[in-house]
Amino acid sequence: MIEVRDLTKTYGRVHAVQDVTFTASPGRVTGLVGLNGSGKSTTLRILLGLSRATRGAALINGKRYRDLRHPLRQVGAVLEQGLAHPGQTGYSHLVTQALLSGTSRDRVKELLDFVGLDAAASKRTGDYSLGMRQRLSVATALLGEPDVLVLDEAANGLDPAGMAWLRGVLRRHAADGGTVLISSHLLNDLEQVADDVVIIGQGRVLHTGRLDALIGGTRLRVRCGDPARLWAAFEHYGATVAADGQVLLVSGLTAENVGDLALHLQVPLYELVTETTHLEDVFLSLAEAP
Ligand SMILES: Nc1ncnc2c1ncn2[C@@H]1O[C@H](COP(=O)(O)OP(=O)(O)OP(=O)(O)O)[C@@H](O)[C@H]1O
């Protein structure tokens, strides 16, 4: 379980995060999304004891990272920078980390196989591709069999097969009762794995909740000969209307309603498409709202 409460971090006059509050629950994958510079890494770094909060708290299983008795057995982290020394082989990196967390060498072999790096285990990590380094980071995070996993942009550099593999790892971890918190700007990928989302913008939480309550709704894309006239008519019948250039985006009416109204008003329709709302749509409307 991860609990972030009223978390605030300031660097001089910059509020990197401000009053950030959310929970990542066991058995669920929670996605942390935000534009560049919105405060994701700051939040995760404080959670992992790499930076101090100015105010508020970020707790793992009820404790701050520095108060955990066996941190490597309670939380596994995949951070953007990666931790392996470029001169070390994948195998020796994992053995060193295993010693630190009191894990057996057998587990190292098992994990190398699990993350698909057994054939590259004796290569220097400096010669690894970005995707291979990410797989090594995942293996390192899983070494101590922690119940909490924290990942910062872990899908970066993975090819589509690697991304599908990582989603499987995270889903299985949650299905086994673990807690997963992952930051990502790959929203289509995140949509396939997250149960809950926390959306942050300019250091503040814009939305937090179940992903299935946020997406999956429908709206209509309407391209027509007289957008202003149809816009007014749609609003008259209770629809919510927005514009994407010359195209109207309409929620709250069916395609039949729109077709009938256009016919009645003698406005030619050039395009009428039903779209499903995705995380990216919701995210952009929240992140770009004034
Ligand atoms: N050490 C630091 N000193 C000064 N400002 C910082 C420091 N670390 C972060 N910031 C600022 O805090 C804000 C949040 O940064 P943070 O790295 O947490 O964002 P992010 O959401 O992880 O961004 P990205 O997606 O680009 O990694 C930014 O304005 C950033 O410039």
TrEMBL record:
Residues 2-227 form the ABC transporter domain. Keywords: ATP-binding, Nucleotide-binding, Transport. InterPro entries: AAA+_ATPase, ABC_transporter-like_ATP-bd, ABC_transporter-like_CS, P-loop_NTPase. SMART domains: AAA. PROSITE patterns: ABC_TRANSPORTER_1 (PS00211), ABC_TRANSPORTER_2 (PS50893). One of its GO terms (molecular function) is ATP binding. It holds the Pfam family ABC_tran. Belongs to the ABC transporter superfamily. PANTHER family: ABC TRANSPORTER, ATP-BINDING PROTEIN. This is ABC transporter ATP-binding protein. It comes from Actinoplanes ianthinogenes.
